[in-house]
Amino acid sequence: MARIIGALTTSHVPAIGAAMAKGLQQTPYWKPFFDGFGPVHRWLEDARPDVAVVFYNDHGLNFFLDKMPTFAVGAAAEYRNADEGWGLPTLPPFRGEPELSWHLIEHLVEREFDITSCQEMRVDHAFTLPLTLFWPQGVPVTTVPVCINTVQFPLPSAKRCLALGRAVGEALRSWESDKKVVVIGTGGLSHQLDGERAGFINKPFDLKFMDSLVNEPEWATQFSIHELVEKTGTQGVELLMWLAARGALEGPVRKLHSNYHIPISNTAAGMMALTAG
Ligand code: DHB
Ligand code: FE
Predict the structure, then answer these.
(1) Deepest of 81, 95, 203, 263, by most Cβ within 10 A of its Cβ?
(2) What is the per-residue pLDDT across 151-198, written as a single tens digit (0 to 9) for each?
(3) Architecture of the domain delimited by 8-142+165-176+183-276
(4) Which molecular function GO terms apply here (predicted)?
């Protein structure tokens, strides 16, 4: 059976892509952010996962406001990034893992999650940047994108997203394969890009949330979506993807590393690496 070796989470601010393309990682603005990834790079070199299941939110590239699935799973042989502006170098397509995609979809539907299955799917910065941050030398893993709607209301609750992650974890552990899987959750932490509260950041809430993910992932499920928006900003609800990724881990979890830095663009940028056992 496949083995889940850990969960990695990170913010996905588009400016990170421009910083990597221009080689700005060691400049004063970016260093506190990029330095967070060193311990994870070393762990990944050693742990060598084969597959990454990526919980992320599409921002209007693959799904727009006219058709917005709550949960969507990619089932394609490859996933292409489409230009978002910024003049970034074109990335090669990300390799899919269709057999696992279909296993996931079947398991999730059996568990009563109503999934949109996508045999074609373009991926945006929320998928591409985290993979590039974790593997800056080139992404060696195959991938399965799992998209959670955090763009158009109504959004799925924190409780539902944690349950989705748990069901994905079950599916991975029952996949007949000897592959090693890492789950990734992207987005957050607190940020608001629009409206009267643009620039809103809530450090005490973010730190409590990060802490809760290690031993008490249910903590965030006490909040409704509207309460989460109030506490973390309109885009801060992207923390739902962290919760789903954490949900895939079973039993005791160890925190390998975390980093938190304000601001990157308008965002409180966080990352965490949790390992199984
Ligand atoms: C920013 C953050 C995001 O999560 C995003 O999707 C786009 C922009 C920002 O802070 O600039
Ligand atoms: Fe985002």
Answers:
(1) 81
(2) 999 999 999 999 999 999 999 999 999 999 999 999 999 999 999 999
(3) 3-Layer(aba) Sandwich (3.40)
(4) ferrous iron binding; oxidoreductase activity, acting on single donors with incorporation of molecular oxygen, incorporation of two atoms of oxygen
DSSP 38-63: HHHHHHHHHH--SEEEEEE---SSSS
CA of 110 to the centre of ligand 1 (A): 34
Q: Where are the domains of the chain?
A: 8-142+165-176+183-276
Question: Among 11, 12, 16, 123, which residue has the most ligand 1 atoms within 8 Å of its CB, making it the best to mutate?
Answer: 12
Residues forming the active site = 125, 191
Pick the atom of ligand 1 nearest to 188's CA: 4
- What pLDDT was estimated at residue 163? 98
- How many whole angstroms from its chain centre is CA 241? 5
* Nearest ligand, CA 199: 1
CA dihedral 15→19→25→30, nearest 10 degrees, is -30
pLDDT(25) > 90 = yes
Pocket of ligand 1 contains residue 268 by CB under 6 Å: no
- Helices and strands in the chain, H and E counts: 9, 11
Interface ipTM > 0.90: yes
Residue 184 pairs in a beta bridge with 8, 54
